[in-house]
Amino acid sequence: MVIYMVEKADYEKLGLMMGLEIHQQLNTSKKLFCPCECELTDKKPDYRVLRYLRPTQSELGKIDRAAFEESRRKLTFLYDTYSQHTCLVEADDEPPHPLNPEALEIGLIIASLLNMQVVDEFHTMRKQVIDGSNTGGFQRTGLVATNGYMDTPYGRVVIENLCLEEDAARRMGQRKGNMEFRLDRLGIPLLEITTDPSIKLPEQVREVAYQIGQVLRSTKVKRGLGTIRQDLNISIREGARVEIKGVQDLDSMPILVENEVKRQLNLLKIREELHNREAEIEGEIYDLSDLLRETESKIVSKALKKGGKVLAIKLIGFRGLIGKELQPNRRFGTELAGYAKKMGVAGIFHTDELPAYGITQEEVVKVNEFLGVSEEDAFIMVADESDKARNALEEVQHRAKIAMEGVPEETRKALEDANTEYLRPLPTASRMYVETDIPVQVISQEHLEHVKANLPELPEEKKGRIIEEYGLSEDLASQLVRQDKVDQFEKIVVECEVEPTTVASLLAYTLKELRREGLEVGNLTDNHILGTFQLLSAGKISKDAVSDILVGVLKEKSSPEETAKNLNLIMLSNEKVAEIIREIVSSHEKMIKERKMGAMGSLMGMAMKELKGKADGKLVNKFLKEEIQKYL
Ligand SMILES: [Zn+2]
Fold first, then answer.
1. pLDDT for 261
2. Ligand 1 centre and the CA of 162: distance in Å?
3. 63: which strand partners?
4. Cα(86) to centroid of ligand 1, in Å?
5. How far is the CA of 163 from the centre of ligand 1 (A)?
6. Distance from residue 287's CA to the centre of ligand 1 (Å)
7. Distance CA 354, CA 11 (A)
8. What number is the average pLDDT over the span 413-435?
9. Where are the alpha helices (DSSP H) in 485-556?
């Protein structure tokens, strides 16, 4: 079957709607509600804290269903704590300290840059979180501003909310029945920015994400992998709302959108086909263990040897549809498997891919006969511990049933290839309670006026200004802004008397090239680069030598000046240059006599070979001309 293709003009017809939710860590000196530093660590923990989740009755005598379900999994939570990065607040053994004003200030700046209405009182709330990533069972969060906007070439997008909250603990995996977390990240201030679902085009969503990112970067936010997290809400009219978590790469965002639209359209086609075939899900779960006792399939025989079972379900009218591609390389079967895997099994076997995985054609025929499946029907098989296999198949039945209704509302995870995979059902509205340990923070009109009068320069403004002030090209200026190097550029230009374009192109292009060549450019400090330009400014090195010296600094771990000396890149005095040129010219007298000024090219080549990086080319040219004329 061919997968559904989407043309650009189709998006409007399909009723594509998108909203973004961006989480950005702030670069404050302290956490949001305690004095711990906001740095992550890979060190061994100083202490470990073990906790159980126990649901209790609310004031109304009720037990929260989600909390109860979670407690049934009987997980224990193991938290790594550090004397430097965590304190009793993160462990929930001490009340939170007052709100970090630095974090709120950054929130106010960003709210103002996004044209938002700031609240006059900041109320800290508790949002219920029961997956163990918050030791208190809730995340502290508060609304800073609402109702802003951002203009894009595709139209205006409303910025709905801006919240200041604490980041969650880092989930490190599951071991021996313990869910392990690191508390270093818990409590780092985080801004959550949500747009309304008015984004209509795949290109526009990238633009909005980019622009919000630029606004964030004009203030004190953390940089680098994992410090900003983008979630995308997306739906089409006939489909359903899906939340895609953890979109990393902005450039792949439009493809991600396109793939999700394809997935939903193809699920709708499957629904239509299932209706035509009068498809049905049989509730029964069959045991095929005896039937497949002698199989060559490693997965199946391994499960059986361990005392597990091979269980199967019948999907009436599903044959051929399970193998149908929804997105590039992802089939409807992948969706069914996604639900099964949440129950802890490694995967499923389905009709449309068999015989495979060591299961033979004869065995497929035997299973078909045993289950009584017809040519239009399919079966799904799972080999694992009995309980796990049964739970997994029930989930597959559940997912298959939804396929007959259409697209399910889901939370999905963004994958590196711009596809997505199933994570969990869409959460219902979160429960919020007032955090009684933190007093209300009044935001005065005066304070807000002060913030608004001192807003940082936005990236676009910055770009315009450096083009004007330093005569940079449009491209160089945007590169500096995008790579966040304007401050560094200006510092060098102010301190050194060098051509601004030379500095800008080193920062914007040369460093990138060096990185591509495999050098650890990240190890170059601002002072290494500044120091090199100071040498240039003082006339000690030539322009050509700058990048060679930086490479030398990286390789030899020495200062720019030492490197210049070691690499013999220190400029020669004018007298020395003149002397070298005199020598070259006098030893080629014959050539000059024959070719007159025509000898210039060859002699220049010889001179530069000797003087490259040690003398200015223009100067060499001038000396050479003068010297040749003496012989004519
Ligand atoms: Zn702390």
1. 94
2. 24
3. none
4. 4
5. 21
6. 53
7. 36
8. 87
9. 486-495, 500-505, 511-516, 526-537, 545-556
